[in-house]
Specification:
homodimer, 346 residues, 434 Repressor (Amino-terminal Domain), Rossmann fold, 4-stranded parallel sheet, 43% helix, DNA-binding
Chain lengths: 346, 346
DNA sequence: CTGTTAGCGCCTTCAT
DNA sequence: ATGAAGGCGCTAACAG
């Protein structure tokens, strides 16, 4: 029975022989679509398969069927809560759809992203979801577009998460609108003088958020002066460094700093604290995304909620949808006011 | 040139024809191991491949070669920083080894885990890494073991992350030792009366940490009274609920609560805050893992550092290693004292 | 309903 | 060094 030395996985052939039926019958009772096989045979096959510990070879099925059950997911940084939440959504939905997800990390490098897309095509995934951030100045953009177009022409489907001007299906995140709503809300709370950590130049998401925030301020009669902003990486450490820079340059009478995303905001609050300033009390801070941990920092962080898991789920559903225009409504966004931006009462 | 309608991916056959060589030559120049092909031909093939946008079909390669380049990763919860950090390590190392990683989520359900392992075997992955938590009372344990054994007998390699009594390769995390060291250190800081959130019964990691912590306390002349502990889920919300329960039961003169892992600790601190108690000042809190965000909470969290990304990398390296005993040294652990456990000076 | 027989895309002896 | 041919595990007509 239990072999102790290395062998090969049981093959469908083995199962068929063990059950005393033909290959086709075995195939049909194990994986075939609609049941058109004698129940008695079916049983024999199932038993034989169980006895042999048979598992269909997905690669073989893929070549024979000419189609896989794979979805490829590209993210910038798996350990970043923004991406891991999206990934959780994708993986969850994939599981429900009986699909397998493979994952790769671009590390925010466009050249690397292109390479990865090329490599992933080898898997012949049914769909490719690109969640790594788009940039305006991407030199590899054209090549990427070409690669993806070719991929779609051979039956694949690509879905972007938030990059509106691509010809591919997209889960639109209302970065601009959300940031604008945030600005409006902050004005309502009595804030008048704003600063911001603006993220790296050219990063699409960052630019949209800054633009929206600025719009909101301007619409409310305020503004975002350039000397109250700092460029920095789109990460926790970037947020820390950016706030540090703002502090070094002199915060002046800045009342609130918008940090573009929650991890940056958390870094920024730590920078304030390390400089002896109390976030929320002395300088208000707001983020974007509403990652889980912002409820647990002190003060709790005001932010714009993005249902990240749902975004991941939607991305996959969108990819699998028949009709092209199913992109549907953009993902709803919601301003969540917490303790990092108390109402100003003076 | 650029087809506008749907077609099929270029095949090696196409490339060969386009280059005017045989299938074999094309194969050899594109993917063959050692170069034994005329440079002129080689060039022609490469050019043809580029012109056609050819990408080798990995599934086909897999069936032909009888081996894949896939590593399957099983985690409990992708969005949890503990697992996403490990995943980042695995994916990073896989990239370096030219391997593809597929990912699935057990949602902490042993039955589901078994199912997933069975399903993943269909991919014929070279290695399978199980990072989802082991439990003592798992009714599916035997079946899982059988499944994994069968998998290894057919050439696969399984690696567990922290489950010492399995017959498979394991990346050992010194949960017990780390917790013991933490206890010792807390005693050094002057703490005398301890409580703990003990996680769900039967969860291996949780039990090791509690055992180690208790050992450390006892060795130092203290103890962990049952009435100062609370069972709860191994998550942020579990930590919150557990601390809530402790508070409701009456904290008494408890000075420090050990939370088993950082996300629980963060939940616990929020529970304290919501109850009007200042974490760190009125009740000290310690966690385990050292996930990135604990530097940004207030007070910063005392914890036991586990190099999670490195754990992921090691898991894959261990899987790929020739010799069996390369399990090597357990992952080093380090107590990191931060502001949530100030020195007691009375 | 069942079995036979071509493939699917690729690799790899085996001759040449 | 190159090409022809068989085979990997499975599916999908196609006959029976």
């Amino acid at each position: 029975m239990s072999q102790t030395s290395r062998s090969t996985p049981a093959t469908l052939h083995d199962v068929a022989r063990e059950a005393g039926v033909s290959l086709a019958t075995a195939s049909r009772s194990l994986n075939g679509s609609t049941r058109k096989v004698n129940e008695a045979y079916r049983q024999k096959v199932l038993e034989a398969a169980a006895r042999l510990g048979y598992t269909p070879n997905l690669s073989a099925q893929a070549v024979a069927r000419g189609t896989t059950t794979t979805v490829a997911l590209l993210v910038a940084d798996i350990a970043d809560p923004y991406f891991s939440s999206i990934a959780a959504g994708v993986v969850g939905q994939a599981d429900r759809e009986q699909l397998i997800v493979t994952m790769a990390e671009t590390e925010r490098d466009p050249a690397r992203e292109l390479e990865l897309v090329r490599a992933m095509r080898g898997q012949r995934p049914r769909v490719m979801i690109l969640a790594s951030s788009r940039r305006a100045d991407d030199p590899a953009a054209e090549a990427l577009q070409a690669e993806l177009t070719a991929y779609e022409q051979t039956g694949g489907r690509v879905v972007f998460i938030t990059a509106t001007d691509s010809p591919f299906r997209t889960v639109t995140l209302e970065n601009r609108e959300g940031a604008r709503a945030l600005a409006t809300r902050m004005l309502d709370l009595g804030y008048l003088r704003f600063g911001a950590l603006t993220g790296p130049a050219g990063l699409r998401t960052a630019e949209d958020r800054i633009a929206g925030f600025t719009e909101g301020l301007v619409a409310g009669g305020s503004d975002l002066p350039a000397d109250r902003t700092a460029r920095c990486a789109f990460t926790r450490d970037g947020g820390y460094a950016g706030m540090r820079e703002l502090i070094d340059r002199g915060l002046g009478d800045t009342q609130l700093v918008f940090a573009l995303n929650d991890v940056m905001a958390m870094g920024a609050m730590s920078a304030l604290r390390d400089a002896g300033l109390a976030p929320g009390r002395e300088v208000a801070v707001a983020g974007f995304d509403d990652i889980p941990t912002v409820r647990d920092v002190t003060p709790t962080l005001t932010t714009v909620r993005l249902p990240l898991e749902e975004v991941g789920e939607r991305a996959l559903r969108l990819a699998l949808a028949e009709s092209d225009d199913e992109s549907g409504a953009p993902v709803p966004t919601e301003v969540i006011v917490r303790d990092s931006t108390p109402r100003l009462t003076d």
